[in-house]
Design a protein that fits this description.
about 0% strand, about 775 residues, mainly alpha, two-stranded antiparallel sheet, two-stranded antiparallel ribbon
Length: about 775
């Protein structure tokens, strides 16, 4: 084969863990900086040590500092407790499922060779002996549990950091918008870096531990590692669906009764659902999002490693080239670290207008720097020519071609991000048109919003199509896997700007509940509107990468299940395509109906409290927040099971009864239809939300003409926003997990389906 790599194996073994540790250290430093903002009123609050040495821009009118700070601290601890108790309840249920599924993996994969412990000829090279299927079963189960655990920890830590930072952002907003922005952004970065570094480190350690047993059988190691991606994504599914149902039940319930019926502002402390709504932002948008992107990251790494292990890297045992996907991620952490400093240290945000540009610059800077990073990694860690396994044949590839594969994924991600921003930010005409249509009521608003969502699919799909074509032409399925990794290589920055959204949303809620002055609420609203857009960009990234990841996993599955071609004209495959394309609709129906029924319970409870608690509207009595939190928790735990079961069981049922050909059809169908629905749902919801914010902010003559809060147009906008909530926060983002999860699950169970699958066709 080609010459040796410039980076020696020892260098790789040092570089990957060092980058991961740097990422974790950087996250801790950012966390300490956020923690400098004090939430307590100790004896020293008069002195300089409390962190209030800087003069506040304006003193609160008639409210002493202490009571505001104390109130913020109280609200923050209520939100934090609610989120923690929900996640613990959720993890108890999911934990039972995890153990059951782990047993299933072990039994199914172990039964491939009837639980024999003898070495077997390798799948792709029958002249060599490989470890038995039983070993693969045991190690797949182990990596599944590792992935699940890492995914849970990622989500949980993110939630902890977000609930730690929300009140601190509110307090900093008294000193000006720039200070508040930095606190929110830093805490987002804590989550981004912890997640990227943890994902990388655990995966690297797992590979090294598996090596102790497998030795030179690399094909076996990386086949067992696929369980890591499956664990990560199956946790993410429940986190996303459960969290999404929770947050939207509370949000819809709070909006419908509070804003539309009672005419009280958003996040008014008189509204009983207000704490549940703020808890929801943390469990859905932060914990769910964290697990989701961790899942994508784990799977794209796994897909690339599986294909590489049966290519020349794996055959010649070239460790550095083999771990190329991990090296790309390692450099990604360093690049994101530099990029983050641009927002927090090199340039300061001084005015409201600079918030969105600052967040957009993050994306551009990280993408440009990462392009150079990938070039360097490809140059030092790949031989000049090598071969990649391509459906049974080895295809020769040069190292610059692989660089282009990663780069095309990276830039496609940027394009998807910007298109999403164009369609969901109220600075551009699409959202302003939607806002304008509110003049004639909610119906036209809904029509315009749906049209916007469908239209916003065009460019992202073309970007994904181009990157698939380019990367497949250069390096077959491996190219697609590394393109997905390229899109996710700047995951730390992507997550930072994404987690920033819910944190600033919570900060606004706390400002309103603590009774802070109007000017502070305006600042937090400005932070929040930018956060809505960045959340939409984050979802765009998640969906785009999910499409590439699942295609790569699909390729790995087809290789593993020994199918040479997937022929659409055979009835077996075609019925699979049809059924697969239907699944995202079924799934969306389940999740939206769950949100609807949970919101119904919430609305009834909120109405009951307004009607039965005397003095609630006047503000003399306190509402029963805990009851609303309980309703959301119970509803989401109960409702997340059916959609989760649909996704987890479909590949098993199809594979066992109809075989691998039909399953390949189902995967392709789900991929094709799921991506479209996911993008359109996320963007429709985001656009409706920002159209409402556009009218509320009244920043332009056009917006002021549509009326203040409470006008007819504003009420129409609120209805649109409420309809869009389950679309953008429950159905849309969960769909990308559906696509990935079915593909990775099929890959893990491929050996079993190939030997024992297709029962129905065997009988007839």
């Amino acid at each position: 084969m080609g010459d040796a790599t410039l980076l020696p194996d020892r260098g790789t073994e040092i570089l990957i863990p060092v980058c991961a540790v740097i990422g974790i250290a950087f996250a801790l430093v950012q966390w300490l900086l956020v923690a400098k903002v004090r939430l307590s009123n100790g004896k020293d609050s008069a002195g300089g040590r409390s962190g209030y040495t800087e003069a506040l821009i304006e003193e609160e009118e008639g409210v002493s500092d202490h009571s505001v700070v104390r109130k913020c601290a109280e609200i923050q601890s209520a939100i934090s407790e609610g989120a923690t108790s929900f996640l613990f309840t959720e993890y108890q249920y999911v934990g039972i499922f995890m153990v059951a599924f782990a047993i299933l993996i072990f039994v199914f994969l172990g039964s491939v060779e009837g639980f024999s412990t003898k070495s077997q000829p390798c799948t792709y090279d029958s002249t060599r002996m490989c470890k038995p299927a039983l070993a693969t079963a045991a190690f797949s189960t182990l990596s599944f549990l590792l992935g699940a655990y890492t995914s849970v920890v990622s989500g949980f830590l993110g939630m902890k950091i977000a609930t730690f930072a929300n009140a601190r952002t509110t307090l900093e907003a008294r000193k000006g918008v720039g200070k508040a922005f930095i606190v929110a952004f830093r805490s987002g970065a804590v989550m981004g870096f912890l997640l990227a570094a943890n994902g990388l480190l655990v995966l690297y350690i797992a590979i090294n531990l598996f090596k102790l047993y497998y030795g030179s059988d690399w094909e076996g190691i990386f086949e067992a590692i696929t369980g890591y991606g499956l664990g990560g994504s199956s946790m993410a599914l429940f986190g996303r669906v459960g969290g999404g149902i929770y947050t939207k039940a509370a949000d819809v319930g709070a909006d419908l009764v509070g804003k539309v019926e009672r005419n009280i502002p958003e996040d008014d402390p008189r509204n009983p659902a207000v704490i549940a709504d703020n808890v929801g932002d943390n469990v859905g948008d932060i914990a769910g999002m964290g697990s989701d992107l961790f899942g994508s990251y784990a799977e794209s790494s796994c897909a690339a490693l599986v294909v590489a292990s049966i290519s020349s890297f794996g055959i010649t045992h070239d460790l550095t080239a083999m771990l190329y996907p991990l090296l790309v991620s390692s450099v990604g952490i360093l690049v994101c670290l530099l990029t983050t400093l641009f927002a927090t240290d090199f340039f300061e945000v001084k005015a409201v207008e600079q918030i969105e540009p600052a967040l957009k610059k993050q994306l551009i800077i990280s993408t440009v720097l990462m392009t150079f990073g990938i070039a360097i990694v490809s140059w030092i860690s790949l031989p000049s020519t090598f071969t990649i396994f391509n459906f049974g044949v080895q295809k020769e590839v040069k190292n610059w071609e692989l660089f282009l594969c990663v780069a095309v994924g990276l830039w496609a991600g940027l394009i998807i991000g910007f298109v999403t921003e164009y369609y969901t930010s109220n600075a551009y005409s699409p959202v302003q048109d939607v806002a304008d249509s509110c003049r004639t009521g909610a119906a036209t608003n809904v029509i315009f919003g749906l049209a916007l969502g469908y239209k916003s699919v065009i460019i992202p799909i073309l970007a994904i199509a181009v990157s698939i074509f380019v990367s497949f032409s250069f390096a077959a399925m491996y190219g697609i896997a590394v393109a997905a990794l390229g899109m996710l290589s700047t995951i730390a920055t992507g997550l930072a700007i994404d987690a920033y959204g819910p944190i600033s949303d919570n900060a606004g809620g706390i400002a309103e509940m603590a009774g802070m002055s109007h000017s502070i609420r305006e600042r937090t609203d400005a932070l929040d509107a930018a956060g809505n857009t960045t959340a939409a960009i984050g979802k765009g990234f998640a969906i785009g990468s999910a499409a590439l990841v699942s295609l790569a996993l699909f390729g790995a599955f087809v290789s593993r299940a020994d199918i040479s071609t997937v022929d659409v004209l055979t009835p077996k495959v075609f019925i699979g395509l049809l059924v697969g394309a239907m699944l995202p609709y079924w799934f969306s129906a389940m999740t939206m109906k769950s949100v609807g029924s949970a919101a119904l319970k919430m609305v009834e409870e909120v109405r009951r409290q307004f009607n039965t608690i005397p003095g609630l509207m006047e503000g003399t009595a306190k509402p029963d927040y805990a009851n609303c939190v309980k309703i959301s928790t119970d509803a989401s735990i109960k409702e997340m099971i059916p959609p989760g079961a649909l996704v987890m069981l479909t590949p098993l049922i199809v594979g066992i009864f109809f075989g691998v050909e039909t399953l390949s059809g189902v995967l392709a169908g789900a991929l094709v239809s799921g991506v479209q629905i996911a993008i359109s749902a996320s963007n429709t919801g985001g656009a409706w939300d920002n159209a409402k914010k556009y009218i509320e902010a009244g920043a332009s003559d056009h917006a002021r003409a549509l009326g203040p809060k409470g006008s007819a147009a504003h009420k129409a906008a609120v209805i649109g926003d409420t309809v869009g909530d389950p679309l953008k926060d429950t159905s849309g983002p969960s769909l990308n997990i559906l696509i990935k999860l079915m593909a990775v699950e099929s890959l893990v169970f491929a050996p079993f389906f190939a030997t024992h699958g297709g029962l129905l066709f065997k009988i007839f």
